[in-house]
Every structure is written in structure tokens, then in C-alpha cells.
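If it is no trouble, can you show me the amino acids of a protein and the C-alpha cells describing how it folds?
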Amino acid sequence: MGLGRMLRRGALTLGALAAFGFAFSALRATPALAQQGQPIRIGAVLSVTGPASFLGDPEDKTLRLYVNRINQAGGINGRPIQLIVYDDGGDANRARTFATRLVEDDRVVAMVGGTTTGTTMAMRPVFEDARIPFISLAGGIEIIDPVSPFTFKTPHTDRMACEKIFADIRARGLSRVALISGTDGFGQSMRAQCQRVAQAAGITIVADEQYGPRDSDMTPQLTRIRNTQGVEAVVNPGFGQGPAIVTRGYAQLGIRLPLYQSHGVASAQFIELATAAAAEGVRLPAAALLVAEQLPQNDPQRQVLIDYKTAFEREFNQPVSTFGGHAYDGLMILADAIRRANSTDGTRLRDAIRATRGFVGTGGVVNMSATDHMGLDLSAFRMVEIRGGRFVLIGN
């Protein structure tokens, strides 16, 4: 199997690369740029620090790890990748400034990054105006709906999260739901999407509470939900510390209704912040990466997920998260597009990314098109439940 096909399958593993005759030592070192051909300059603006650092840190580590591996395997069409990373700290204004710097000063040919919906939306016009492909790692559906010519994304959308959650609620014979949403960009986007798809899903929203990004106690909102007649389940659109505070407060108030979180908390850090006791029984839709070893042997994602999980945890000695997986998918999709286009021209790269078919990544099997700049359907989401401090697969 050629390197290009391995990229398409998401199978660029240490063993696979070794088969090409490359040795791997000092994987965290700065990639050598001594190969033939000029470096391919790829940008990344990530929230490595700040309130979204639990998302941005594994994204940053993943990009550096796999750029290094690609370069040690000979680069792309004989050209090494030069990765240029800026940390926006979760601030949308800083993100836009760095995006401009990547375009005007660094002369990148593509961008893999945008940790949050807010920072992504701030940067999108910069890359669209420059006609440079931008693969976002954020969840909001407005990033790719309606389609912008040069903007793509790898995570599942917030609309898909609502649909997956509501389907599970209905499968439990329930239909009356309360929302408690963060006022951040992702929280508001998912809240709007849940409201939009509720009726078609057979769901009635009977309470609608919100909290700010700096709120440290959601007891008043949760008390109002507890006192609302007829509530059968609670859904929390949000990410960061807010959902952990909601989960702890939920337990402290003794609310016994099913609690659902979004894919924005799909990491072991959420369980740690919320505490395993409070998070017991919480359900959420997530990429299969969280439950890689629980997948059937014939699942097409299983080996890709286990290889990525093993490589990341061995390299950084910390649990894998779906957020790093989004960065892996974005980088590999871009690398394969550059290989197939045999060009770094923005329009040719855009067309090659759109032509991605059958890419097996951590988020699912990706099939993009001119009208679908994400390429995932609802089957890419897995419903998981937190039991005994770990994520357990409860359905497909």
C-alpha cells in the first residue's frame, strides 16, 4: 500500500511508516527540513492556553507529532511540511490577528485549526478572502452551513449532536426536555440547533436556561429546571468548565432525570472536573475514539483509532481525547489532498479536499463534496455513557 493510500485511510501509523524504511527517534524534535523540495507551509491557530486549552492542547500536540512523522517518512511528494502554530488563548480577536499574519507574513498554503466555533468564525473571512483552504476543528454547524468555498471542518456538528441525543431520549420513551446552555459560541449554536430540530425529533422543550462562561454556580438555573412540571430529561449544550459545573450541581441537587452533555466534553478531563460520582450515568454523543477498544473487530475505524490512541498516549503520557483526533483528521485529509493535487495552489487544494472519499479517520468515514464540507453522517457519532469513571459504548 502506498503512502498516499495510507493517508486516505487514516492509517499513517508508526509501523506503516517504518515499512517505508524510515527510522523514528526523537519524535518530539523539530522536524528536519532537509528533504528535497521547498517546505509546505501550513498554519494552525489553536487555543493551546485559556479556557479552551483542554481542546487546543491535544490538537497542538497531535499536529506536531504527525507533521514530524510525515516528514520523517519523506514528506508529501518529496516536500516537508513546515507547521506554523499560534496560540489564540481562546480569544476571537487574537485568532483573527494570527490568521492575518499567517496569510500576509507567513504565506501559508492551508490552515488546520480553529479550536472553537467563535475563533473559527472570526478567522474564516481572512482565509476565504485569501482563497486559502481552512480546515476547522470546531463544532458549530454555521462553519460549513451554508458552505463557504474554502472552509471545511472535521468534528461532527452541533445539529448532529442534538439529533443523536434526541433519538436516544425518544428510545427511552421520553420526550419532554429542558435545555441549560452556555452563552459561548458553541453553546448558543447548539442551543439554536436543538430548538430547530426538536419538533421533527418528537421532542418538546419545556424549559430553557442559560449560563455565562464565568459562572461558577448554576444552582438557580438547575433549581428552576427541577421545579418545571413535566421535565423528563436535561440537555446541556456547552463546552469547557460549564458542563462540569452543571453536572456537579445536578448531583448536589439530587436531580434524578437523565442528563445529556454534548460532544464538546468528550474527554477524560470532563470526568475529572465533574467528578466520577457526579458524572455517573451522564450520556453524550462522541467520536468512536473514546471507546476504540470496545468497537467490534470488523469496525473500519477500530485499528485507526487504536493506532492513534496508542501513539498519542505513548508520546505524551496523557489520555487521548476526541479533540486531538479532530486535528489528526484535518492534517491527514489536507496531506492527502496536497498529494493528489500535486500542488499547493489554493483552488486546486480546495477541489482536492472536496474530492475526499472513504477517508477513515478518528471522527468517522469522511466523504466530502462541493456541497458537504464535513463529509460525516449521523452514523459517525456513537452514544456513550459514563460508568465508573470511564466512557462506555451503549449504542451505534
User: Anything to note?
Assistant: DSSP finds 14 helices and 14 strands in the chain. Confidence is low (pLDDT under 50) at residues 1-5, 14-35. The chain has two domains: 3-156+317-380, 158-286.
